[in-house]
Structures
1.
Amino acid sequence: MSETGAKSNSLDGRIRSEIEGKILSGEWPPGHRIPFEHELADQYRCSRMTVSKVLSRLAEIGLIERRRRAGSFVSKPRVQSAVLEIPDIRAEIVRRGHVYRYELVSRGRRRATAVDRDALPARKGAQILALKCRHFADTDVFAFEERLLNLSAVPAADSVDFRTIPPGTWLLDHVPWTEAEHCIRAISAGTDYAKLLGLPNEAPCLSVDRRTWRDESSITHVRQIFPGHLYDLTARFAPSLDASRMLRPVPLLERRSSHHASSG
C-alpha cells in the first residue's frame, strides 16, 4: 500500500493529514501553537502516544517545532540542508538595490500528463498547476520560469493570485520542504527562450531545474532560464563547512553591486 493510502486508512494518518491541511492552507500560520497532546487526544479519542507519534513525524519533516514544556508550533518556512540554496529571486534583486518587476505569462490547471509526471513527478491523474512567468531586474529580463505545482501536496496554491506574487516567493513563505534536487546546464537561448529573454538565439544561458519534496510528496518542479551575462554560480567551501553552505547561485548583479560598493 502507498504511503498516501496508508495515511488515509489509519487514525494517525487522519490526524496528520488534518494538521497538515490546516498548516498548508494558512489556517494555522507560522508561529501558531498546535493544540497540546492531551487536547488532540481528547479531540480524536485516542492515546497521547498516537498523537505524540504524529507530532514527532511532523517535526521531522519540518512542518512544526516542538518546544519542551511550551508545546508545538507551526514552523517558519526555512531553507533546509541542500547543496544548492533555493533563492528568492525577488528578494535577491530588491536586496541589491535593483527595481524588481514580475510578469505572469500563463497559468493553467490540468490533469498531469506523462511529461508532467516525469518532470514533477506526480501520480497518474494528479491535478497540477502550470505557471510561466518572467522576472525583471531594472529593464533586463533576469529569468524566465516554467513551473509545475502538485496540487495534491499544496492545495492552497490553487487559490493564490500568481499575477501579483511570484510562485517561488509564495512557496518559500508558506510551504516547508525536506528535500531538493538541482540540475544545472549551460544552454543556448534558442528559439524557445530567445524572444522571452530578449536575447539572440545563440546567446548563452544558464538553465536551473529544481524539484522539491516534503517527505514523500513531490511539491514542485521549476525550470529557470537565466541570461548568461546576468547570472553566475559561485562556490566557496572547505572540509569543515556544512554542505548547505558549499554552493549557492550568485547573480552577476550582486557581484557588480559589490564591486561598485568596494570601489566607491
2.
Amino acid sequence: MAEKIIQLCTPLNDAVVRNLRAGDEALINSVVYAARDQAHKRLCALIERGGTLPIDLTGAVIYFVGPTPARPGQVIGAAGPTTSSRMDAFSPILYAQGLKATIGKGYRSVEVRKALQQYGAVHFSALGGAGALLSRHIVKSELVAYEDLGAEAIWQLEFRDFPAVVAYDAYGASVYDKK
C-alpha cells in the first residue's frame, strides 16, 4: 500500500511541523524563499546587529537554491537544490527567528539537527540534478533582497506541488539514519 503524500501550505506552524516525520513525502505549496550562502550570511549579520530582516521568517521555508535565469516565457530557470551543509553555520540562527523549514540536498550537521529539535523545525530534501524538472513546480518568482548577489539573492517563489521528503524531523530522526 502506498503511503499518503502530505500536502503542505506555507507558512508552516508548530502543529504541522510536529506531525512531520523523517521519510514523509510532501508536496509544498505557497510562498517559499530562495536563498544561498551569501544571503544567509547577510541575514545572520542583520540579526546580530538587531536590524530588520527583508523577509518575515515566522513559519517560513527557505529553499537552498540559486536559480538560473529564466528563458523568455518562463517564470524561472533551472532551480535544483544546493548542498545543505553549506548553510549549516547559519541555519540555527534562522530557526531561532521562526524559520520552520529548509529545503536542500545532502546531510546536515549535528548542530543543525539539535536546532531543528530545539526550535521545532524540519529539513526537506529535494532531488538533486533535477533543476529543470523542479522549476516546473515554481509558478511565480520575485526578487526580494540582495540583488547584487545575482543567483544568490533572496527570491520569493510560489510553489505548486513542489515534491520533497522530510530528511530531518523535529524529533532528531533522519532518513539518512535508516538502513
3.
Amino acid sequence: MMKMDTLKAGQVLFFSGTIYTARDQAHTRLVRAIKKRSPLPFILKNSIIYYCGPTQTPKGKIIGACGPTTSSRMDEFTPFLLKYGLKGMIGKGNRTEEVRKAIRKHKGTYFITYAGCGALLSKYVKSAKIVGYGDLGPEAILKLEVKNFPLMVAIDANGRSIYG
C-alpha cells in the first residue's frame, strides 16, 4: 500500500496493486452494510475505490473498457466511507468542499485518471473478479489487479487540490 500522506496534488504516478470498482448503487449498499454492521464484500480499510462500471468483457480479454465515471456522484457517500477506513478514490472531476475536508481529516487521497480512454485503461488491468453485488451488472464491485495504472493526485492528504 502506498503512503498517501507523501503524495502531493498534481503528482503523476503509475500504480500497481489492488483497486475495487464501485459506483452509485454499490456505494449505497456499502454504506447500508456498514450501518447495519453487515459484512462487506472486501476490506474497506486502506482500500482504493475506482469509480468505474466496466463495459462487457470482450472474448479473450480480462475486462472491457474501464474508464472513470464522474466522482461527484459519490460525494454523498465519500466522507462516511473515509471515516470507516477508505484511503483512496479514483475518478474524474472535482469534489465538494465536504469531501476535500474529509480527505484531509482521514488522510486519504483522491486520484484522477484519463477520461474517455476506457479501452486504453483496460490494458493496465491484469485480473478482474466480481467480489460483491453481482446483481448490479456493470455496477458490481470488482477486485482489479492493476500494473502501472496511470494516476494523478487531484486532492492530497493535506487537502491541497489541483482544482484550486
4.
Amino acid sequence: MILNNNDLKKLAVFAKKAALSAGEIISKAQGKPIEVNSKIGGENIASNVVTEIDFKAQEAILQVLEPTLKEYDLGLLTEESADDSSRFEKDYFWCIDPLDGTLCFSRNEDGYSTSIALVSKSGIPVIGVVFNPRTKTLYNAIKRGGAFKNDLPFRLKNKSNVLTLLYDQSFLRIKNYEQEIKNLENLAKELGLNEVKLHHLGGAVMNGIITIELAPAIYYKHPKKALGGGSLWDFAASSIIQSEAGGFNSDYYNNELDLNRKDSTFMNHKGVIYSSSEKLFVKINGLIND
C-alpha cells in the first residue's frame, strides 16, 4: 500500500498523539527512584539497560498506533519487543523507541526522549516525531513537508561562533580521542569559529536533533565491527526531522542511513554523521576519514 501525502498527515497525527501519551508517563516518573534492569544489547552499557517506564511508554504508544497497522497495512519495529520481520514485508513500518536514553533518564540527566518514525521498506523515513519530556518539546516532520517544533516551523539558524560537538559516553572511548579533538579545533579555526564546545547528551535521538538547535554543530559515531553504534529506532525519526530542518545526515560514506538493515537492528556497520549543514559535513567527513 503506497501512502499519499494525506495518508502521511493523518498518520503523523497518530504518531504525535502516541509520543505525547508516552511522554506523559515518562514525565510523571522523572526524578523518582526507579529500578534499572539489564537486557541483551550491544557492547555499551546504555544499550543494555531497561526500566518499567520503557515498557509502559511502549504500551501507551502501541495503544494509539495499533489501529493503523491494519488500516494502512503497516509493519512494526519497536525496541522493547522482538523483531517480527514485518518491516521486510510491508511497504512501511513504524519504528519506535519508547524511551531513548534510558540510562540518562535513570540518572535524571538530559538527553532522553520518545521517538516514533514511519519508515519505508527501502529504509527511508517519511514521518518523524520526537518528544522531549524534560522540556515538553515536540518535534515532528513529514518528508518534503518541513520540520516543526511545538507546531512552529523548525529551521536551521547559524548564530553561534563556536563549533559544537554533540557526544555520548561512547565517544570518549574512541581511538585517538585527543587527536580527533585537536583536528576539530583546527577545523573550527579554518571555518572562522572561536572554539570547539563539547555538549554531552545521553540519547542518540536528541543528539541528532540538537545539531540544529546549536548550529554549527555535529554528532557522529564511527563505524565499528562490534554491535552497537545506536539502532534503527535511534536515528529513524531524528534523521528526517534534522534534514527537514535544514541539516544533513548520512553514514560515514556519504550514503543515506541504512534504516531497514537486513541482518541487524544496530547501526555500527557504517557509522552515522549528523551535521548542521552539508558544507560542514563535507569538512567533517574529510577530517575524520583522512
